[in-house]
Structure formats: C-alpha cells, structure tokens
C-alpha cells in the first residue's frame, strides 16, 4: 500500500542539521537552523531555566494529565509580557501548544473553522508557514514582504489588503522576521493596524522571537498596536528561542475577542483540535517557564540572559555591517535588521560553494543565523562570502 504514497523531499532546513553534523572539518560554520549560540558557539540551557528545572524536580508531585490546554499557569503568566500589563484580561484566553509550530497550527485551524478561506502572507516567510496553511487546507495568497532595497514593503501589504475579503486571515510576523530580519517599523504598524480593521480581516500574529530584537516590550509593539484596534486577533507564541527551550517544544496559542462567548468558542475549538492532534502538550518546558515567571529573581535572571543574547547578536550585526560591501552584497542593512536571521542575495551555486569549499552551512534561501557567527569565525565567513561572490 505504501507504494501509493508520493515520495516526500526531506525538510531542507532540518536536513542541514544532519549535513553539518556529518562534516568532519574543524572550522565548519553552522548558520542553518535557528538556534542561538554564545560567543563560543554553544547553545546552553538558560541559568534561570536550570534553576526552575531544579525546583520542578523538588516540587513536582505528579505527572498526571493536565488536559488539552496544558499548563494554564504558564499560559496566563505570559500574558502580561505578550499583551502588556494593562491589557483587558477578559478579552484574551489561551492554551499551551507544542512549540510555535503547534501554536501556528492551532491558530490556522481555528481561523479555518471560523470561516476563513484564504490567508495572506508576505514572502519570503518561514517555510513551515506555507506547509501548515496547505496541510490545514486554506488558500495561500502571498505578497512581497521586502522591498528591493531591503525595507519592509508596506505598499505590497496595502495592495494585498486592498484585494483581501472580509474574513480572510492575514499572517504577520510580530518581530524578528524569519527569514529576512526585516521588520515593519512602529510607524508602519501604526498604519497597518487600522487597515486590518477597515478591511475586516482576521490578524494572526506569529510572535516566535520576542526579546531577541529590541527587547520584550519593544518587540511586542506591532502586536499591541493591532490589539488596540482589532476586535479579534489570533496569536501564535513560541518560548523556544527566548527561553532557549527548543527541543522541549514550548508555545502558546491565544485568541482575543471582544465577546465572551466567541472567546469560549475559539478556545473550545482549539481544545478539540489539540485533542485530535497531540491530545495534550508536553509539560516540562512550560512548567519551567511558569516557575521562572512566578519568581521575581528568576524572572530578572531570565531577562538579563535574554539581554546578553540580544547584545551579542547586535555585536555580530555591527561587525557584518562594518564590512559595508562584500562582492555585490550591501552589508549595512544587516546592522539594522533584527533577531536571529538575515537573508543574503546568494545564488544556489554560491550557497553550495560556501558549503563545499568553506564548510559554511546556511538555508537554501540564503538565510543565515546571525548567532552562528563568533569573533573566531566571522572573518572567515566574510572572506568566504567575498570568494564565492567576487
Ligand atoms: C528556524 O526557522 O530555523 C526555526 O524556527 C526552526 C524550525 O522549526 O524551522
């Protein structure tokens, strides 16, 4: 029977992890999958998370099921960080999800059940967005996320919204755009939010990198602007990066409405989708996040660790920007982009040459993980870039 299955290509980004691991070169550089790395190339567990895990080991007295919405203490503890301290709590409810991917899946499924037939998305985007949209069965409509000179393309979004119909969903990256690092400015969000309302579309904000761009508060600007005007919003949240919990799969799905019954329906539908998909999300990482957020000292420690990450990525960006021009590539924009990623205008051949000739691994789109660069490999990277593009 399985011969009837269409062969599937392996996921290119996740495939890079294996290719990189199999490369015996000592000076290889991993700019592939989006994990933060320190100046020595490590991805350590946050100190605040280690402390929370120790506490969990001591205090957790049961591993009995929690239910499809997972650890609601975790879900609620995040709300002030995501939505703002003063946000009207009666308008928002959420549930835990397995990573940002689980949260995006829930959001798109709920949007479909609520009647959305199409979803608008700027491209390039995280490749899994389109895969999830296709798996859920919505029609994907795309527009360009970025202008030729490297800014967020507000005109393209406006043109897309002009064609959108009431009830369409619009997927926007809250911050640290993946894969380009090019975010809408605050002034652009100020224009986007009322337009979304005017067009009666359903905003779906994917916030997977809060705190890695300009800070926890600043990175929520766009989402909060939309929340201040739109009657209904869906949010897919990930703690994989900002708490360093990648493999523990820690995310949350939130719905915001102005009607209590509609909110209960959104959550009820989320719960049935979760039940039929993974039944209940994994507990450990979310419990650790909850323990961090319930403890002032651990919260301060976590925020300081997040500041360090952001500071290091800024330093790498500053060094890349200082290179000004590498072959045909203008490097200055990398200095003002945000988060883990930037995208270089490289051909497939150049990307392959970087891998084969220089041991430098990056996504086929030309996306690089900024955190893969350190003071000991950044010069080699710039030289290799020059060699393959020169
Ligand atoms: C990435 O974009 O590298 C990360 O979000 C990991 C993933 O799941 O693709």
List its salient traits.
390 residues; alpha/beta; Aspartate Aminotransferase, domain 1; 7-stranded mixed sheet; 14 helices; 15% strand; globular; binds (2S)-2-hydroxybutanedioic acid; transferase; pyridoxal phosphate; PyrdxlP-dep_Trfase; aminotransferase; Aspartate/tyrosine/aromatic aminotransferase
Mind explaining what this structure looks like?
Residues 27-385 form the Aminotransferase class I/classII large domain. This is Aspartate/tyrosine/aromatic aminotransferase. Belongs to the class-I pyridoxal-phosphate-dependent aminotransferase family. The structure is a single chain. The protein has helices at residues 12-22, 47-59, 72-83, 99-113, 127-136, 154-163, 186-198, 221-229, 260-277, 284-293, 296-322, 332-336, 348-358, 378-389, and strands at residues 29-31, 92-97, 118-123, 139-144, 169-173, 202-207, 233-238, 251-256, 325-326, 329-330, 341-343, 360-362, 367-369. It folds into two domains: 10-45 and 306-389, Aspartate Aminotransferase, domain 1, CATH 3.90.1150; 65-293, Type I PLP-dependent aspartate aminotransferase-like (Major domain) (Aspartate Aminotransferase, domain 2, 3-Layer(aba) Sandwich). By secondary structure, it is an alpha/beta fold. 45% of the residues lie in helices and 15% in strands. A seven-stranded mixed beta sheet has the order 2-8-7-6-5-3-4, with helices on both faces. The chain has 14 helices and 13 strands. Strand 9 (325-326) and strand 10 (329-330) form a beta hairpin. Bound molecules: (2S)-2-hydroxybutanedioic acid (LMR). (2S)-2-hydroxybutanedioic acid (LMR) binds at residues 13, 33-34, 126, 128, 178.
């Amino acid at each position: 029977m399985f011969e009837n299955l269409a062969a599937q290509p392996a996921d290119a980004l996740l495939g890079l992890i294996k290719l990189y691991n199999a490369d015996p070169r000592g000076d290889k550089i991993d700019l592939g999958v989006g994990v933060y790395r320190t100046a020595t190339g490590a991805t350590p567990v946050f100190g605040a998370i280690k402390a929370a895990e120790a506490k969990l080991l001591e205090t957790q007295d049961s591993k009995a099921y929690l239910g499809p919405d997972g650890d609601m203490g975790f879900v609620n503890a995040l709300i002030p960080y995501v939505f703002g301290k003063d946000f009207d709590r009666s308008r928002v409810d959420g549930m835990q999800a397995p990573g940002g991917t689980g949260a995006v899946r829930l959001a798109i499924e709920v949007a479909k059940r609520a009647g959305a037939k199409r979803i608008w998305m700027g491209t390039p985007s995280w490749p899994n967005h389109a895969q999830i949209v296709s798996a859920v069965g919505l029609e994907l409509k795309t527009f360009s996320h970025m202008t030729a000179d490297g800014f967020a393309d507000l005109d393209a979004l406006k043109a897309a919204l002009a064609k959108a119909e009431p009830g369409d969903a619009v997927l926007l990256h809250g911050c640290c755009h993946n894969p380009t690092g090019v975010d809408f400015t605050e002034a652009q969000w100020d224009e986007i939010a009322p337009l979304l309302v005017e067009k009666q579309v359903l905003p779906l904000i994917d916030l997977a990198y809060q705190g890695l761009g300009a800070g926890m508060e600043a990175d929520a600007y766009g989402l909060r602007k939309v929340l201040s005007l739109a009657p209904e919003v869906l949010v897919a949240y990930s703690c994989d990066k900002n708490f360093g919990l990648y493999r523990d799969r820690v995310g949350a799905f939130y719905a915001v409405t102005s009607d209590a019954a509609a909110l209960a329906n959104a959550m009820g539908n989320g719960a049935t989708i979760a039940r039929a998909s993974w039944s209940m999300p994994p507990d450990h990482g979310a419990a650790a996040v909850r323990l961090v957020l319930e403890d002032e000292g651990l919260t301060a420690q976590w925020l300081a660790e997040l500041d360090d990450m952001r500071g290091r990525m800024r330093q790498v960006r500053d060094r890349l920007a200082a290179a000004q021009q590498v072959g045909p590539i203008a490097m200055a924009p990398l200095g003002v982009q945000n988060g883990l990623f930037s995208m270089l205008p490289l051909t497939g051949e150049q990307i392959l040459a970087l891998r084969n000739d220089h041991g430098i691994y990056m996504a086929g789109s030309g996306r690089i993980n900024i955190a893969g660069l350190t003071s000991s490999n950044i010069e080699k990277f710039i030289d290799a870039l020059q060699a393959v593009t020169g």
